[in-house]
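Example 79.
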Amino acid sequence: MKEPRTLSCEEALKDMYTFLDHELGEAERRDLEEHLRICRSCFSRVEFEKRLRERLADTGQSEASGDLQNRIRSLIGRF
Ligand SMILES: [Zn+2]
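Predicted structure in complex with zinc ion:
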């Protein structure tokens, strides 16, 4: 059995946005999902970002989204 590649949190977070845009390749997606299974902190970030995107899509607040995302990213950075 092939050992899954272990991502660092930094790599996982970098892939996260591509993943959420559904533009991540099959192998990379598997690596990321594997990391999310073992890493609680990255898992919550992905969930958070996913919900945020759904909410922005629902309300269609495209002009506020850049500012909001910046604010939320600086908030996340403090964890
Ligand atoms: Zn992680």
